[in-house]
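User: Structure tokens for this complex, please. No commentary.
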Amino acid sequence: MNYGPIKARLDRGELVILDGAIGTEILRRDVTWADHQVLSRPTVIRAIHEDYIRAGADVVSTNTFQLTRRALFNHFRDETHRRQIGAPDLDDRADRLLRAAVELAIEARDAAADGRAVAIAGAITTLEWCFRPDLAPTPEQARAEYRETIATLAEAGCDLVLIETVNSVGEARAAVEAANHVGIPCWVGFVPDERGELFSGETMAQAEAALAPFDPDVLLVNCAPPEDCRAGLGELGEARRGPIGIYPHIGRFDPPEWLFTDEYPPNRYRREAVDWIELGARVLGGCCGTTPEHIAALAELRAPS
Amino acid sequence: MTSYDSVRQRLEGGRPVVLGGPMGSELVTRGVRWRGHGMLTDADAVRALYGEYLAAGADVIRTNTFQLNRRIYLDVFRDVAHMRHIGAPGLEHRAAELTRRAVELAREARAASGRGEAAIAGVLSPLEHCFRPDLAPEAAVARAEHAELAVILAEAGADLLVLESMNTLGEARAAADAARAAGLPFWASFVLGPDGRLLGGELLAEAAAAMREAGAVAVLVNCIPPDGVGSALETLRGGPAGAFPHLGRFDPPSWKFEFFPRFCETEAWPPARLAEAGAAWHRAGAQIVGACCGSGPAHTEALARESRVASRGSREDEAATRREARDPRLATER
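Assistant:
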């Protein structure tokens, strides 16, 4: 019911504003990135969602990037080792954090949407590292794990899932199949390289062709610098008739944190976005390094209602 | 006389050597945000912690370089070109810079501590995640990458190297080669699985023999729970041996890619309990005793107190006590 008005706007070819970064925004608010902080610092997370909603975001994404059982279990050799030395609550920690994250987004909407339709997108990414297609699990394994995560997000109250920073067609398809199986709408964001291709070497046209039978509502490009995302958006626009979108990162990845730069202040970001709209983008947002001010600048591009 | 000489004398004289506690997990416990091993943002906290281990009586402190190498940066990018394209400037050299800084801060702490005889052990650890033997790089690659780190640690002034939490014999051999080439004495320490073998599956006895043959002065186990130490020490008989187990349980972050030093339920091991265990390890043949993640300076202090008792015991038993009388620290105690 929250997604209906958003979908209608997409169908009419109108702009939809996605939120900005949450992980790097946590850092900017002086909290460590090591954890999602949905249970340890819930007020910080809720406040970020609220700020994006007040800035004009139509869709806010949950703070659940790479929050999976696999990510926690990867820190151990295997199950016996985990049981020997691991914290006692690891078996269901991911599940609990996913639910708490969705709950915070719902609370933020209740507090800040002010009657406006705001949809909550459960954010998920590749099961292994988002920039490393070489680590991707098999499609069968991926499908099973995506089903589990997406079912939890749907059950907890998400209106759609945002499958983002995807680096290969195979993993995108596994995730979209899982979303269809669960019965929740989905958007898919690919991380493009400088030529606008996927990190796996596949093209946006191949991605569109492979996903078409599963009918994801929007295909996007994200988590690359604006110029790379622009290249990917161009490729996507040529291949696809359905809605497309873009949400680049700004600044620099400084593992394990983010380096904020002043290269793309909100005004410049908005000027770039005018060009993205020209290229066909109808969903605009921000990835790492963007702030509520950037989203407010994008929201100014929406036709007055 | 280098700072390692006093440690060498203790080992050769059959006396206990107290190893300082962990840097990462204690810094995180103290609220340091874990980035750059704290050394760019919280250098004072790093230096202070080294100093506290020295003040607590550590004969050897370990550098804040656990799981610090070029891979922890490179692994989170598609490749080097991607790192240069979207990464912060200077990432390619970050690990080397931090490694050097870790030794410098340790030396500053030692200079300020009045413990000039204490040795600084440069820590070499698995190049990939310490609990993931399946990710260990192949031998030639591992040798080259450990060599790079060993040279930096040696040039920066480490007195010895500790190959810590080694999870495969293959990588331990590679690191041993690198340590030897860097010209520093080295100790080798393994992380074991629940079955008492290396996490990678090799027998501890074989790994210990291989390390002694490769020139390791001592062989140890670490980053295992304290209750696994006793049986490991049985296996390590036949040369200088030691242990520095972790306390509590590993509590990984919900979003972080490399090893993150956080342990929970550490209250199960207060310093007094660890000292009791340490006494048993001394009796079981451990000469080098310390604690790893989850412990702090109070644990080092309790172990140091306990080891002085063990040391007195050995003095009464052995004829080599005259040499010890010249040790000014022991003389002060009397």
